TrEMBL record:
Homooctamer. The lineage of its organism: Bacteria, Pseudomonadati, Pseudomonadota, Alphaproteobacteria, Sphingomonadales. The active site is at K201, K255. This is Delta-aminolevulinic acid dehydratase. CDD domains: ALAD_PBGS_aspartate_rich. GO terms for cellular component: cytosol. Belongs to the ALAD family. Keywords: Heme biosynthesis, Lyase, Magnesium, Metal-binding, Porphyrin biosynthesis. Pathway: Porphyrin-containing compound metabolism; protoporphyrin-IX biosynthesis; coproporphyrinogen-III from 5-aminolevulinate: step 1/4.
Length: 331
């Protein structure tokens, strides 16, 4: 309980560095971070992404090096996103099912380089593979059809699992996909592969740089509002989370991050399950732009946002700052 001034002076415990350290309620460590990485074709290739300053696409050799770097820095997990070449994209996203696609080759290269020292999270959704940039299959009216899309997503997840993924992370927001993927993984003998559901994923304006990074931005017509959530909704997020947990998700994610910390807090308090947030590309770009404009110190801004995720209740955070933050934290 808090007494009355002057018996109680909350500034007492804040007066010195040692005391602030002693009373700190939350800590951020490299083990809290998941590092999203963009994969591209070629060898020895690093392509900077203009709308994501400081982030590049890497060819598979570079991806393996980044994974080794993650291990050195104490980052437990990397998340992979492929920049599929335009000639491998199609209306049905069939490249997602190719056992030799960019994603599968990247998974194997990381496993060869790092063994089980790093977790490999793979995104399940068709947007890196479709010619129209939507996450699923379209009917004639351009509507993303649910059940036929789920069938393809199951194939995509099994393809990633066979290549060696550790965490399957469906980001497509189709209804019923977690249960379908869980059942297929069980039947295929992958009982220990985890599912991290992008359970509360919003139709957000903060995904722009990501779409540039995977090459789907210029292709996308319309929006994703018929499957991703309305930013005005909170209760609906709790229903999404409840469903995905009942269908067999091991952990859940809220996305984007900082504008949705109220959702993180509600999810954590209601369900008491491993809860992650994705500090998405537009959030990262916003901090970079602010720092470049002289509006704040880049490192301080980044670390303040990351501890805020912990304070809100996150188990961990997907962030493009992962490697940089880990370096800062490791001193
Ligand atoms: C694909 C996917 C997206 C992101 C992660 N997976 C984009 C989208 O839904 O359009 C966004 C991540 C980011 O912005 O950093 N479904």
């Amino acid at each position: 309980m808090t007494g009355l001034f002057p018996d109680t002076r909350l500034r007492r415990t804040r007066a010195t560095g040692w005391s602030r350290a002693l009373h700190r309620e939350n800590v951020l460590t490299p083990a809290d971070l998941i590092w999203p990485l963009f994969v591209t074709e070629g060898n020895g290739v690093e392509e900077p992404i203009a709308s994501l300053p400081g982030v590049s696409r890497w060819s598979i050799d570079g991806i393996a090096d980044r994974a080794k770097e993650a291990v050195r820095l104490g980052i437990p997990c990397v998340a992979l996103f492929p920049n599929t070449q335009p000639d491998r994209r199609s209306d049905d996203g069939a490249e997602a099912l190719n056992p030799d696609n960019l994603m599968c080759r990247a998974i194997k290269a990381i496993r060869d380089a790092c063994g089980d020292d790093v977790g490999i999270l793979t995104d399940v959704a068709l947007d890196p593979y479709t010619a129209h940039g939507q996450d699923g299959l379209l009917d004639e009216a351009g509507y993303v059809v649910n059940d036929p899309t789920v069938e393809v997503l199951v194939g995509q997840a099994l393809n990633q699992a066979a290549a060696g993924a550790d965490i399957i992370a469906p980001s497509d927001m189709m209804d019923g996909r977690i249960g379908a993927i869980r059942g297929a993984l069980e039947s295929a003998g992958h009982a220990n592969i985890q599912i991290m559901a992008y359970a509360a994923k919003y139709a957000s304006a903060f995904y722009g740089p990501f779409r540039d990074a995977v090459g789907s931005g210029g292709l996308l017509k319309g929006d994703k509002k018929s499957y991703q959530m309305d930013p005005a909704n909170g209760e609906e997020a709790l229903r999404e989370i409840a469903l995905d947990l009942s269908e067999g998700a091991d952990s859940v994610m809220v996305k984007p991050g900082l504008p949705y910390l109220d959702i993180v807090r509600r999810v954590k308090e209601r369900f008491e399950v491993p809860t992650f947030a994705y500090q998405v590309s537009g959030e990262y770009a916003m901090i970079e732009a602010a720092a470049a404009a002289g509006a704040g110190d880049r490192d301080a801004l980044a670390l303040e946002t990351l501890i805020s995720f912990k304070r809100a209740g996150c188990t961990g955070v997907l962030t493009y700052y992962a490697a940089h933050a880990a370096r800062l934290l490791n001193g």
